[in-house]
Amino acid sequence: MNQTIETILNHRSIRQFKEVPVTEEQLDTILAAAQQASTSSYMMAYTIIGVTDEHKKTELAEITGQGYVKKNGHLLVFCADLYRHTLNASPEQYEQMLSNLENSEHFLVSAIDAALAAQNAAVAAESMGLGICYIGSIRNQLDKVDEILHLPKHVIPLFGMVIGVPAHTPDQKPRLPKAAVYFENEYKHDHEAELEAFDQTIAEYYQSRKTNTRNDSWTDQMLRRFTNPMRMDVTGIVKKKGFNKQ
Amino acid sequence: MNQTIETILNHRSIRQFKEVPVTEEQLDTILAAAQQASTSSYMMAYTIIGVTDEHKKTELAEITGQGYVKKNGHLLVFCADLYRHTLNASPEQYEQMLSNLENSEHFLVSAIDAALAAQNAAVAAESMGLGICYIGSIRNQLDKVDEILHLPKHVIPLFGMVIGVPAHTPDQKPRLPKAAVYFENEYKHDHEAELEAFDQTIAEYYQSRKTNTRNDSWTDQMLRRFTNPMRMDVTGIVKKKGFNKQ
């Protein structure tokens, strides 16, 4: 197994960091890695905001409810960005661009471009001995995050990422069996048996892990999560920012 | 620079492959890497379909207009998947889940989950000396791809990925300068100067590269691309499949 595969397979989300900032050199490497990811039709439809201002970090920690959004080596926010592509457009050209700027195709393109860049950043950081955690909970108050970062139209925050020197080594969380996420040639509609096997694995995992033991299964957890409507305001905010409207 | 960073920074999209299939062992490693990516709230909201059937590969190559979708070491299609989460739900529970299944939040979650997994797969493959290329053009006819792969409701194809032993070494395409994609604390609305500098870089790149030289700049290329409405049907197909409806 090579060093890269080892790094990837060793991933766990890190939520406690030593009080050591990510160095300029590390950050440059992480950003270069992010930028080298594939991008749809050369659009590079994302922006990364590094948040260092203590007041902004405090506000973001409150929005996410996660203390490590304030206490970390560095905080990045990954945004979908189609604004840059409009910068050189005349008013007439901008009008003509709107169908693309506002359709689901380019909402997908920009979200996927941002995610590919982010995962390169994550793997690069981990290969240097740093730990990371994605922060989806910035979408708890997407409009407020949008304001804090002064984002123009056609730019929306998607998720954050905290990076730093790990101060703990959490257990690795099991993944669904390969047989439940990988199919050959066509989707296997009936894969309850694979989920059942995983529920057993997960029940054992929750019982045996070092901290925060509980009785739970994956399918129960998902049922609870999905039956409780979450972040219903994201739809409207995304549209208000000019994405996903037509 | 460690091996992982080197692998990531050396990325180029590979579109010509030797006639050597990806081995079972390589594929298992690539899939394990994909699965170890971070996932929003443990949802693992994606499915990967490996396409080996020659007839299906031919159909997908026609849809994408890209011969290497047929000729490669292995072809993967990454899908957003919220179907799995409904498998154990009663009809009443399913009704209750619909708000989440259909909102933009979970459209984003599943697209991002799939992209994070895909980029881990890409880096893992490249670390083993394989080459990859993302295939966004499966969205040329999303409904047909959906049919070919027999996807249920709440599953949509997002993009493909071809993997194999590289038969060429294309030039690396320049990326936007860091100053155009990374900002500290807030978005820099006026970054035309950074784009102008990049346009110069790109004009030189297109003139100097080994094959397919042309006169072009990045901003011109983007203006052309965005003023021509593309894949406007994706919006409707995504909704028909139960995503992004409310």
TrEMBL record, chains A, B:
UniProt cross-references to InterPro entries, sorted A to Z: Flavin_OxRdtase_Frp, Nitroreductase, Nitroreductase-like
Pfam families found in the cross-reference section: Nitroreductase
Range of residues in the leader sequence: none
Keyword annotations from UniProtKB, A to Z: Flavoprotein, FMN, NADP, Oxidoreductase
CDD domains membership: NfsA-like
An MF annotation (GO) of this entry: oxidoreductase activity
UniProt keyword Flavoprotein, yes or no: yes
Record domain Nitroreductase: where: 8-161
Family membership: Belongs to the flavin oxidoreductase frp family.
The protein's name in its UniProt record: FMN reductase (NADPH)
Record lineage: Bacteria, Bacillati, Bacillota, Bacilli, Bacillales
